[in-house]
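Continuing the batch. This is chain 6 of the set; chains 1 through 5 are on the previous pages. Same settings as before, nothing changed between runs. Recording input and output for traceability.
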Amino acid sequence: MATATTQGPEAEAEADAPVWISATQAAARAGVSERTIHRRVAEGKLRSRRHPLTGRVSIDAADLERALAGEPAAPPAART
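Output for chain 6:
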């Protein structure tokens, strides 16, 4: 039995979509405190988003990896 796979522009957009992790997960990956993660977000060094209902902050995992490698943060995504 074959499984259905998404192809075309939708699949490409999904593959390029950022993976978001919690500030706790980001802190554990980086070996720093959550406060440091929140500070980096406030400084614009890490891209994040805030959940509209809970207010929790999520960090772009790829942006965190770039920061850990010493590369600059990705520019903010355009809002539509």
